[in-house]
Every structure is written in structure tokens, then in C-alpha cells.
């Protein structure tokens, strides 16, 4: 039988095996006060659970975070500045939400329609609520919708970009700069996997935004009565049963990008992959999401 002191040391060392692998993240803070009581069953279980290394991914940049604590679980080139395509629409959504009036009616202008390639084909003079436009922006990633929201909220595309940069700075996104609301290529527009994970965490914590990003499909009614059924661009919503968001993005410069989130049991995770490709973007994201939430000991 172990002496009490030796048993306590063994238990504390054994429980350290439960800690997930961290790449690029700061170590967890040391708790203050006396250590929590450790049971014999917990210690034995911890001593027998093998550490599971993160899976290899093809994406050039990636990060996995716990959205509750903000802790980084895995990182790969997380601070490399690069285009992030439509994943920056998460920041657009946050700026729109900050107005506090998402039921305001927006009248579409001809300037809103001047974008390609993904569009909802809004017509000048149509009227829609910010809420409906934001829902479609998160599900279908329509660039004309992004321009309409930006003009309505910021007065112009340039004015809204300034709001995006102020919001990014307030969140602690230190290596980002935005020029438009939709992520189409623009000079001096960039972010990082770490920064976009910060925006994603804020979006995930918004009940309204997350309710939109979790939709597998939605309908949209044009002012002339036409109704469109729109399928979410995030295929992980169908591949992983506990996936609940968040946003896709694709341009030639950015490659295939995906910010995904999921909750399993009492644990949640956000996964960002940037500069992946069509053959790997879904597998990269699924592997990291499953690793973060399904590996042995993750429920702890």
C-alpha cells in the first residue's frame, strides 16, 4: 500500500496524462489554493490513458481552440499572415450584431450587386431585414448580401471596413487587416489562423450567429415572392453529427478555408484550417474536430 504522500504524488503525475497536446499555446494557468482532491480511480484511469498526438493536416495554417476557455489545443503556422477568403464574414457578422438592431429593414441598392462570384442575385429596391440577410450570409456566403449589410451599417464599403478593423483590434486580433466585408481579394487584406479563431470564438458565443451557422439549409424570400432554398456551404455539418458551424471560404489566393465548431458532451472546440485544397479541406477539419473532442480523456 502506498504511503499517503507517495500516493498523492503519483496521482498528480498520472493526471497530467489527461492534458491535451498543445502546439503554440500557452500552458494552462496554475490554480491557486490547495489542490483538488484526487481519487484513486481518477489516478489509475489517468495513468492508463495514452496521449494522442494531433493528426497531420495538409492545410498550411491551422489552429484548434477551446472556445470556452480560449485555450489553444493545436497550432500549425497559426501566426502566418495570409488571405482568409469568406471566413472573415464571421467578423462582418459580429460588426452587424454590434449595431443592436438586426431587425432594421435594408433597401438593396445597385451598388450592392457589384460583386462576383457567389451571389444571391438581389435586385435594387428589394427590402429585407438585417436578420434575414445575416442568416443568408452565414449559410450561403453570398457576396452581394455582404455588400448590402456593409453599406447599410457602415455607410459605404470603406466605412464598414474601418468598423471591421476596429472590431478586430478590440478582440485582440493583432495580425489582421480588412478591406471589405466578404473576403474577395484586396490589397493589404490578411489575417491569421490564430486571429480568425478569436473572431470565431466571439461568433460562437453569439447565440444568434451560431444559430445561423448551424443551419444545414434555409429559405429566402425575394421581394417579388420568389423563394429559394439555400444549402449551407459547410459540408462538415452533415459529416460530423455534433458539428454546429461556422464558416467556409475559398479564393485562388486563400485556397480552401474552413472554420468549424462542434460540441460533444461537455466539451467544445473550434477548428480553423487555412490554405488547404479541395481534396483535403473537409478531411483536415474533420480529423482535427474529432481529435479535439473524441480522443481518450477529452471529456475531462
Automatic annotation (TrEMBL):
InterPro entries linked to this entry: Beta-lactam/transpept-like, Peptidase_S11, Peptidase_S11_N
Binding positions (substrate): 247
GO BP, sorted A to Z: cell wall organization; peptidoglycan biosynthetic process; proteolysis; regulation of cell shape
Keywords from the named record: Carboxypeptidase, Cell shape, Cell wall biogenesis/degradation, Hydrolase, Peptidoglycan synthesis, Protease, Signal
GO MF annotations in UniProt: serine-type D-Ala-D-Ala carboxypeptidase activity
Residues of the Peptidase S11 D-alanyl-D-alanine carboxypeptidase A N-terminal domain: 54-276
Span of the signal peptide: 1-23
Matches recorded under Pfam families: Peptidase_S11 (PF00768)
Catalytic residues, chain numbering: 86 (acyl-ester intermediate), 89 (proton acceptor), 141
Family the UniProt entry places it in: Belongs to the peptidase S11 family.
Name of the protein described by the UniProt record: D-alanyl-D-alanine carboxypeptidase
Organism: Luteolibacter luteus
Native organism taxonomy: Bacteria, Pseudomonadati, Verrucomicrobiota, Verrucomicrobiia, Verrucomicrobiales
Amino acid at each position: 500500500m502506498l504511503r499517503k504522500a507517495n500516493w498523492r504524488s503519483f496521482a498528480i503525475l498520472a493526471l497530467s496524462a489527461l492534458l491535451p497536446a498543445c502546439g503554440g499555446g500557452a500552458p494552462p494557468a496554475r490554480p491557486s489554493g490547495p489542490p483538488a482532491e484526487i481519487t484513486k480511480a481518477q489516478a489509475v484511469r489517468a495513468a492508463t490513458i495514452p496521449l494522442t498526438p494531433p493528426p497531420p493536416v495538409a492545410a498550411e495554417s491551422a489552429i484548434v481552440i477551446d472556445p470556452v476557455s480560449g485555450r489553444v489545443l493545436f497550432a500549425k503556422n497559426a501566426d502566418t499572415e495570409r488571405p482568409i477568403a469568406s471566413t472573415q464574414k464571421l467578423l462582418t457578422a459580429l460588426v452587424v450584431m454590434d449595431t443592436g438592431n438586426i431587425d432594421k429593414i435594408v433597401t438593396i441598392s445597385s451598388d450592392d450587386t457589384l460583386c462576383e462570384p457567389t451571389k444571391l442575385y438581389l435586385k435594387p429596391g428589394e427590402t429585407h431585414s438585417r436578420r434575414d440577410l445575416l442568416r443568408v450570409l452565414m449559410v450561403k456566403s453570398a457576396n452581394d448580401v455582404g455588400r448590402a449589410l456593409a453599406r447599410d451599417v457602415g455607410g459605404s464599403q470603406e466605412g464598414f471596413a474601418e468598423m471591421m478593423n476596429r472590431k478586430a483590434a478590440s478582440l485582440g486580433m493583432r495580425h489582421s487587416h480588412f478591406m471589405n466585408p466578404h473576403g474577395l481579394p484586396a490589397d493589404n487584406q490578411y489575417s491569421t489562423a490564430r486571429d480568425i479563431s478569436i473572431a470565431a470564438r466571439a461568433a460562437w458565443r453569439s447565440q444568434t450567429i451560431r444559430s445561423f451557422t448551424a443551419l444545414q439549409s434555409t429559405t429566402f424570400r425575394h421581394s417579388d415572392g420568389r423563394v429559394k432554398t439555400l444549402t449551407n456551404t459547410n459540408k462538415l455539418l452533415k459529416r460530423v453529427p455534433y458539428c454546429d458551424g461556422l464558416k467556409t471560404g475559398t479564393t485562388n489566393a486563400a485556397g480552401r478555408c474552413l472554420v468549424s465548431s462542434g460540441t460533444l458532451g461537455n466539451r467544445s472546440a473550434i477548428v480553423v484550417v487555412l490554405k488547404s485544397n479541395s481534396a483535403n479541406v473537409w478531411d483536415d477539419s474533420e480529423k482535427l474536430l474529432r481529435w479535439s473532442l473524441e480522443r481518450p480523456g477529452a471529456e475531462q
